[in-house]
Amino acid sequence: MDDRFRGLGVALVTPFLPKGNIDHAGLERLIDHQIAGGVDYVVSMGTTGESVTLTKAEKKELLAQTIGFVRNRVPVVLGVGGNSTAEVVENLNAFDMDGVDAILSVSPYYNKPTQEGIYQHYKAIAQVALRPIILYNVPGRTASNMTAETTLRLAKDFRNIIAIKEASADLDQMGRILKHKPKDFMLISGDDALTLPIIAMGGVGVISVVGNALPAEFGTLVKAALKGDLDTARREHLRLLELIGLLFAEGNPGGIKHVLKVLGLCGDTLRLPLVNVSEATAGKLYQALADADVVRL
Fold first, then answer.
1. Which of 5, 30, 129, 163 has the highest CB neighbour number within 10 Å of its CB?
2. 201 contacts 178 by C-beta, under 8 angstroms
């Protein structure tokens, strides 16, 4: 098992300046905040990073900046996915992988491929990838679920496919993966609110959204759960649960970017078609931060 990806991973937002350019100073503050908070690794250009709105040039620049700001203090995972297998392979070959420790690749979206199509997609990626691969199943965004059987087939057929980020919210499906997976294959929560039950079942951690703002606090939950300290994990889960729910009330990453602005880490600029959270949700988020003892009213 690759212990580099055990524990708390954070799917970094991409900070933007008010006019829409990447905010490199904000990115550096955010990364330093993660590492000071004790995260185990960071993920660049996942869903939370608004990767689908970035140009190819921006992606290369953002990756280089992220690696530079991390300075080898934690592993870096790069998000590379899409609904064209050939384009994903091309993009993998285009990135400079120095400083990249693994690839997170989302299951193809929009096309709604069969399970065999999903398998062949990842087979093509596995045959060219220069770094270990973390599968990413998120049916709420892709409009197709990668079944436990497909995940297990990939895990058994390709040694460089080392884990899955599971965001199906289907604990039964995750249980089947955990029961039948190869010994070294890892299941990682893709849902902050389900991190505790997933770790209790045998998951190794989470790739988190709330960790952008509260790495130390959410890290306490993850580390306690992994140690079997369920009292501490349960307490932290319940303390943060309302905040986590509100982060997604009007879509991701609008909620977390608002919280990051409140905390002074970066601005809340989003790229269309995403827009900022409403004043009503912003007020609820601030109240939830106060209830969790993060800010004072």
1. 163
2. yes
Using DSSP bridges, classify how beta strands 7-11 and 161-166 pair: parallel, antiparallel or unpaired: unpaired
Name the phi and psi angles at 165, rounded to 5. Answer: -90, 110
Instruction: Cite the DSSP H helix spans in 71-133.
Output: 85-94, 115-126
Nearest to 209, CA basis, from 46, 7, 27, 28: 46
**Which token pair is 141?**
């965004």
- The pTM assigned to this predicted structure is 0.96
Among 296, 297, 251, 260, residue whose Cα is nearest residue 278: 251
Pick the catalytic residue: 41, 136, 181, 257?
A: 136
> Is residue 165 among the annotated active site residues?
yes
Between the alpha carbon of residue 66 and those of residues 78, 131, 158, the distances in Å are 10, 17, 28
pLDDT value at residue 201: 97
Q: What is the CATH code of the structural domain delimited by 3-229?
A: 3.20.20.70
Please answer whether residues 42 and 78 qualify as being in contact, where contact means their C-beta atoms are separated by less than 8 angstroms: no
Please tell me which residue in 41, 119, 165, 257 is annotated as part of the active site. 165
CA angle 147, 165, 262 (to 5 degrees): 135
Up-side HSE of residue 199: CA atoms within 13 Å toward CB?
Answer: 27
- Give the residues across from 22 on adjacent strands: 16
Q: Pick out the chain residues at pLDDT < 50.
A: none
- Give SS3 for 52: helix
- Domain positions in the chain are 3-229
